[in-house]
Amino acid sequence: MVSLEVDGVVYRRRGFLFDKDGTLISFSHWVRVMVERAHRLAQALGLSRAEEKELSMMLGVDPETLETLPRGIIYAPRRDAEFLTAEYLGKRFGLPLHQARDLVERVFAEVDADFPWEGALEPTPGATELLEEIKRAGGMVAVVTHDSAAAAARHLRSLGWEELVDAVVGLDICSQGKPHPEPVLRACELLGITPREAVMVGDTRADILAGKAAGCHPNIGVLTGLGQSEELRVADHLIPHLKALKIEG
Question: What CATH number belongs to 2-26+122-248?
Answer without folding.
Answer: 3.40.50.1000
